[in-house]
Specification:
The two termini are 18 Å apart. The chain has helices at 3-6, 18-26, 30-39, 55-61, and strands spanning 15-17, 45-47, 50-54. α2 packs across α3 (30-39). Strands 1-3-2 form a three-stranded antiparallel beta sheet. The chain has one domain. The protein contains four helices and three strands, in the order αβααββα. β2 and β3 (50-54) form a beta hairpin. The radius of gyration is 11 Å and the shape is globular.
Length: 70
């Protein structure tokens, strides 16, 4: 299954935990996902004390449309 079908629509899930985003987009484990976020390979935003991956930015980084076609 490709990333287009695995990544949720940003309107349904605007942000994802780092580990989940890495697993969905790149089939990474938890540690590798956090390393990718540290390197800037996964776009992140800070909400309070937590880092999240904005779904729309991740889809854009992968060259995918912002939202799934209905």
């Amino acid at each position: 299954m490709d990333a287009t079908r695995r990544l949720p629509d940003p309107e349904e899930r605007p942000i994802l935990p780092i580990a989940e985003a890495g697993a969905l987009a790149f089939n990474l484990g938890r540690a590798a996902s956090y390393n990718a976020a540290r390197r800037g390979d996964l776009p992140t935003i800070r909400v309070g004390n937590r880092l999240w991956v904005p779904t729309a930015l991740l889809r854009a980084k992968l060259g995918l449309p912002a939202a799934k076609a209905s």
